[in-house]
């Protein structure tokens, strides 16, 4: 008999998961809101698009430090405590940033501090979730949270513009500070305290190295990270959305449609995957990674807008394989190093996506956008085949 896959209703019936879900919703929305408000704040003060773009970039860079060096805090200390403290510190820092006339270097320093705690919060959640949702409820729970991140980003960008227009940048930043405070309240009220998983008392640096060894020393976890990093290739469609829209004869609305097509496909794909029985789901990991890139090969034919949106949506649906990779990675990682190892994996993902965006933008200076996306799809197919082969070879011998 085929095992029944747990569904969204099963996970939403868990009180602690609902608290985590609510905390993630307000936190992600507030984070995106702050990005919009800060970009506008810096542009208003400097009248420089370059400084505004640099400020936006600063919201991503601290992940490269916080992921490897700070994520292990959730292994060494109670994860709920780590998440609440991260929320409180971010709320205070953003509230200070909202002060009128604060010098821009101080704003930048506080921004870096706020973003340093993002991978800490996410790694603590990754360490906590298997305890809140054991067994087969873990996969649909992670799927809901990943879909929530997509929806929260869209909502945060939309609300950011509206709140800045209505309240000014200071008011929007205070709303962001309030979102972190509300997240902390959800966690305190709805999530049970649990002890730290790492109790050996080893020093911080040795724990960091141990987390790296957990990732690099296991071929299965390394293959899963490689599969995740394939997203740094097919992200080219998002990276050149603006010039691609212009090539298709559209403006801002078409840019939104292109970005939304991928996000919509991703949400639909994760919703379907969460309902597929576990044994079949595991076999889809490699084929979906290849399809996420292969779908973009159709852009070489210079399709019209409707066909392009269909290709982007298909790529988004297939990219939901990251749900399988993400949940499998967490489940394969020992409890005592889960947050630290997840931090390393998250950093690798951020680096691959950042490089993918930069390279796609540089190539688009000389190559038509449809060619950039199709070329990225071709490279991605090769990379996905390679990562999928690593995953197959890493599986234990059934004999």
From TrEMBL:
Pfam families in the record: MFS_1 (PF07690)
PANTHER family from the UniProt entry: INTEGRAL MEMBRANE EFFLUX PROTEIN-RELATED, STAPHYLOFERRIN A TRANSPORTER
Membrane topology: Multi-pass membrane protein
TM stretches of this protein: 51-71, 91-117, 138-165, 171-191, 222-246, 252-272, 284-303, 309-329, 341-364, 370-391
Record key words, sorted: Cell membrane, Membrane, Transmembrane, Transmembrane helix
Annotated GO MF terms: transmembrane transporter activity
A GO CC term assigned to this protein in UniProt: plasma membrane
Keyword rRNA processing belongs to the record: no
Gene3D superfamilies cross-referenced by the UniProt entry: MFS general substrate transporter like domains
Statement: the UniProt record of this protein carries the keyword Membrane: yes
Protein name per Swiss-Prot or TrEMBL: Major facilitator transporter
Naturally occurring in which organism (per UniProt): Amycolatopsis mediterranei (strain S699) (Nocardia mediterranei)
Location within or outside the cell: Cell membrane
